[in-house]
Design goal:
With about 130 residues, the chain is of the alpha+beta class. It folds into 2 domains: about 35 residues; about 90 residues, Sandwich (Immunoglobulin-like). It contains 1 helix and 9 strands, in the order H-E-E-E-E-E-E-E-E-E. A 5-stranded mixed sheet has the order 3-9-8-5-6, with no helix packed on it. A 4-stranded mixed sheet has the order 2-1-4-7, with no helix packed on it. The termini are far apart.
């Protein structure tokens, strides 16, 4: 009888600990989610015919650029801000076929190129 009582107390204690941990996790996650709108995602693919899509319209803010290359070799993507004619960021694939970058875009026009094929471009138009 004493063994069963100890097991029941242990189970109650464990249950209380799990519930308290779950409450803390929910409180922290709700706070993190409420700090701003979620980032949008844009999939851009480089094929043998160029970028798909060739042009994307976006609102300012955080954007996940998900890029994929269906061509042989290691891609070297560059995101260029046309108003400054300067590269914003080099986007290099991690595993040769795809990559993801979180970028905060301000209003303007950007061009995504692969330095191996500079004639192919994807235009990102960011506006209100």
């Amino acid at each position: 009888m004493g063994l069963i009582d100890r097991k029941m107390r242990c189970i109650r204690s464990l249950t209380a600990s799990v519930l308290a941990s779950a409450a803390l996790i929910l409180a922290f996650t709700a706070n993190a989610w409420s700090q701003g709108p979620p980032a949008r995602s844009v999939l851009i693919t480089l094929t043998q015919y160029g970028f798909e899509p060739r042009e994307v319209a976006l609102k300012p803010g955080a954007v996940y650029l998900i890029f994929r290359s269906r061509l042989a070799g290691r891609p070297d993507f560059q995101l260029i801000d046309l108003s400054r004619s300067a590269p914003v960021r080099a986007l290099r694939d991690r595993d040769k076929s795809r990559g993801t970058e979180l970028i905060t875009l301000t209003p303007g026009t950007y061009t995504l190129i692969d330095t191996r094929f500079s004639q192919w471009k994807c235009t990102l138009r960011v506006g209100p």
